[in-house]
Amino acid sequence: MRLFQRWFGLSLRVSRKHYLLSGLALMGLKLVVDNSIAYAATGKVWPLIAYILPVWQFKAKALGPMPEWMLVAMALAALPFLWVGISMSVRRAADAGLSPFIGFAFVVPIFNYALMLMLAALPTKADAPAWGAPIDRPMPASVRALDSGAKATLFGLLAAVLVGLAMVSVSIFSMAVYGAAMFFGTPLVMGATTGFFYNLHQEQKLGRTIVLSFVPVMVAGGAILLFAVEGLLCLMMAAPIAAVPAAFGAIIGRAIARQRAVGMARSTSMMLMIGMLPVTAALEARIAEPTLREVITSIEIDAPPEKVWPNVIGFTELPPPPELYFRLGIAYPMRARIEGQGVGAVRHCEFSTGPFVEPITRWEPPSAPGRAGRLAFDVTAQPPSMTELSPYKNIKAAHLEGYMVSRRGEFRLVPLADGRTRLEGSTWYTLSIFPEAYWTVWGEGLLHAIHGRVLAHIKNLSEQ
After folding, report:
1. Is the Cβ–Cβ distance between 94 and 131 less than 8 Å?
2. How far apart are CA 292 and CA 101, in angstroms?
3. Do 104 and 184 contact (CB within 8 A), yes or no?
4. Out of 261-270, 299-308, 371-380, 445-454, which region has the weakest mean confidence (pLDDT)?
5. Which end of the chain offers a freer environment for a tag, N or C, measured as fewer CB atoms within 10 Å?
C-alpha cells in the first residue's frame, strides 16, 4: 500500500533510493505491458531501440500494421506511467533541494534520461523540508507581491493562456510541428501554472483546481479560433488529449504550492519549466518522422469481378453523406472519372474539398470469369482533408495540407464462390501530427469511413 501511495500519491517524499528502485521496477513493468499489448495485437514485440529513442517509426517497422484498438490501449496504458514519472520526479527534485518544477523535464525526450540519472544520484538535502504537510514559511518577494488569492489566481490564468498561445506560435508557425510538445506538454505546463497560483495563498479543493485548469486551455482554444489559426473540428479532436495533461499539471501544481519553502516559487525555476516546451518541439522536429501506414477496408458484392471492374475505375455521383462528421466539414468522395486506359492513365477522384490526382501504376482487369483484378495508383495531388468550422470563410489551417498525406492506393477484386466478389480498398498514407498513436486513431477512422462510402457505392452500382 505504501508503494502504491509513493507512486500515485503526492504526500510522500521520494529519496534517491526510492527513485532509483521505483524507476527500474517501472521500466521493467512498462516493457511487459507494452509488449503484451503489441504481441496480442500483432504477434510481435517492440525492439529495445524503440525505448531508447522515442521515435514511432522504430515501433511501426518492427510491428507492421497495427489495429486501432492497439493504439488506444497503448495510449491509455502510458498515462499511469507518465503520472508516476512526473510526480516522482517533482518530489525527488524537492527532496534534493531543487525546485520541484525541474521534475517536469521528465516529459522532454532524450533530456529526460539526463534528468533521471541526476535525480537518482543527488542525495537528500539535509535541510530540505519534509514533503507532505503545508509549510508555513515566508514566500519570496516576487510572490508576496501577489498579495491576494484572487490576484495570484488571475496571474496564473493569464500566464497559462500566454504559454499556450506562445507555444502555438512557436510550434506551428516557427517549427511547423504539430507534436506532443503542443498537445501534451503545453496543457501540462498550463495546468501546473494554474494549479500552483490558485493554491499559492490558500489550499483549494482538488476538484476546483482541476476544473480551473481547463479554463486557460479553453481560453487559448477560443483565441486560436478567433484569430483563424485553427477551426472548431480540430480543436474538438485535440480537446481529449489536452484535458488529461492539464489535469495532471493542476494536481501537481497544487501540491507544489503547499511546499513553498523549497524554492519552487522562484521565477527562474518556472521559466525553466516553460522553456522545456520549445526545446521539446525542436527535438520532435528533428527526430520525429512519419510512418507509412496502410488502411484496408473490404466489402462483399453480389456480382462477379468483371462486372465490378468498370465501377472501380470510375463511378457516378454518390448521394449526399448522412454522417454528421462529413456534413460538418470532413472531406468526402463525390465521384470518380478516368482519363485513358492502362498504366499511365490518370484517375480523378473528386472530393468535397477538391480532386485527388491518381496516375495508374497497375492495371489488371479481370479478363475472364473467376479471375482477380487489381487497380493501383499513386497520388500526385490531393485537396485539404477538411473544411474547417470557423467564424471565417475559407480558413487555411496549417495542418490541412501536407500533414496527413495519401501516398498511393489500390483496389483488389477477389473472386468468391457463387459469382460474388470481395472488393478491398487500400490507402497508404503518412501522418505528420504527433503523438502519432493518438492522431492515427482519428486518421484511420476517417479513411475507413471514406473507403466504406466508396465501396458501398460501387457495390450498389455493381448489383443493379
Report:
1. yes
2. 37
3. no
4. 261-270
5. N
Where along the chain do its domains lie? 2-287, 293-462
C-alpha cell at 405: 498525406
What is the rounded CA–CA span in Å between residue 427 and residue 356?
Answer: 13
Interval 82-92: pLDDT, tens: 999 999 999 99
Report pTM: 0.82
Residue 198 to residue 203: CA distance in whole angstroms: 8
Confidence check: pLDDT of 460 > 60: yes
Q: Residue 323 CB: number of other CB atoms within 10 A? A: 12
Going by C-alpha positions, the residue among 167, 164, 255, 242 that lies closest to residue 209 is 255
pLDDT in tens, 313-325: 988 888 888 888 8
Kindly state the cell numbers that stand for 386. Answer: 477538411
Residue 351 in grid coordinates: 472530393
Q: Is the pLDDT of residue 377 over 90?
A: yes
Q: According to the per-residue pLDDT averaged within each range, which of 193-202, 208-217, 249-258, 435-444 is highest? A: 208-217
Q: Which residues pair with 295 in a beta bridge?
A: 427
Instruction: Decide if 373 contacts 364 (C-beta within 8 A).
Output: yes
Burial 211-225 (b: 16+ CB within 10 A, else e): ebbbebbebbbeebb
User: 206 or 325, which is more confident?
Assistant: 206
Closest CA to 295 of 433, 431, 104, 113: 431
CB 181 within 8 A of CB 171: yes
421 contacts 414 by C-beta, under 8 angstroms = yes
Lowest-confidence segment of 27-36, 152-161, 265-274 by average pLDDT = 265-274
Residue with grid cell 501546473, as numbered in its chain? 192
Q: Distance between CA 359 and CA 208 in Å, rounded?
A: 57
Domain 293-462 has CATH 2.40.37.10: no
